[in-house]
Design a protein that fits this description.
Helix 5 runs parallel beside helix 6. This protein is α/β, with parallel strands linked by helices. The longest helix has 15 residues. Helices cover 41% and strands 24% of the residues. The termini are far apart. The protein is built from 9 helices and 8 strands. The chain has one domain: Rossmann fold. The strands form 2 sheets. A 6-stranded mixed β-sheet has the order 4-5-6-3-7-8, with helices on both faces. The chain is globular, with a radius of gyration of 18 Å. The structure holds adenosine-5'-diphosphate and magnesium ion. The site of adenosine-5'-diphosphate has 11 residues, from helix 1.
């Protein structure tokens, strides 16, 4: 089902932090939402989730850090069961094993609390929970910033493989244009509460039109210098 929202906007303390924004996302499409810190990416992500839930879509959210999704006092099994119950899914060990295998969640003891697992495995577990109900859209807000770069790259590669060919669309919110460029086919650039550019990744990277996109691209090239 194509995702279609019109006129998403937000105001906080009398200030507009998101100007009216329309979004269309096709099933299985991978979109990167990039922009400087404070440009409104997380606000757009939250507004999108709220609006889609109100429209009856199934949407899942992966926060920046697994700490935001996992209760330190609860076992991993409790979290999994809670996720199944929230989606009104019967307990299904085969489904869990298939997701764990796809995301390489190996040797994790479900009776342990989050701190008994590595950060990388906690984050993959959170992603597995998010994918449980085969959502129409998975929104990930800076999902790699709490992980070391190697673990982060592995996680994104596993997710890529899992989503390939499926109907779940991905919105990857990140300030890291390099990360987004490798994982999405379409890039949206935000600046001061507005989506100022929306283009196929290749085009945006080679011919950015707006100043916001140009400065993100320039920063990325600078990062690639061997120094
Ligand atoms: N609850 C809030 N109250 C006041 N200002 C907010 C609130 N949430 C976000 N903002 C402001 O809105 C702008 C966009 O924030 P955010 O969406 O978090 O940006 P990003 O995710 O791109 O860093 C920022 O200037 C931020 O300070
Ligand atoms: Mg943010």
């Amino acid at each position: 089902m194509t995702i279609m929202v019109r006129g998403l906007s937000a105001e906080r303390s009398g200030r507009t932090i998101l100007y009216p924004t329309d979004l269309d996302i096709k099933p299985g499409e991978r979109v990167g939402l990039v922009g400087a810190s404070g440009s409104g990416k997380s606000t757009l992500g939250h507004m999108l989730i709220d609006t889609l839930l109100a429209q009856g879509h199934s949407v899942a959210h992966v926060p920046q850090s697994p700490d935001e999704a996992l209760d330190p006092l609860r076992s991993m099994r409790f979290h999994w069961q809670e996720a199944e119950q929230a989606l009104r899914l019967p307990a299904d060990t085969d489904r869990r094993m298939a997701l764990f295998e796809a995301l390489r969640i190996e040797g994790g003891d479900l009776s342990k609390r989050p701190w008994g697992w590595s950060r990388g495995m906690q984050q993959r577990f959170v992603i597995a929970m998010a994918l449980l109900g085969t959502p129409d859209l998975l929104v990930m807000d800076e999902p790699t910033s709490a992980l070391d770069p190697v673990v982060a790259a592995q996680m994104m590669a596993l997710l890529d493989d899992y989503l390939a060919g499926g109907s779940t669309a991905l919105m990857l919110i990140t300030h890291d244009l390099g990360l987004a460029a490798r994982r999405v086919s379409r890039l949206m650039v935000m600046d001061a509460g507005r989506v100022v550019e929306d283009a196929p990744s290749e085009r945006l990277l080679t011919a950015p039109q707006t100043q916001a996109a140009q400065s993100l691209c320039a920063h990325r090239n600078w990062m690639k210098l061997p120094c």
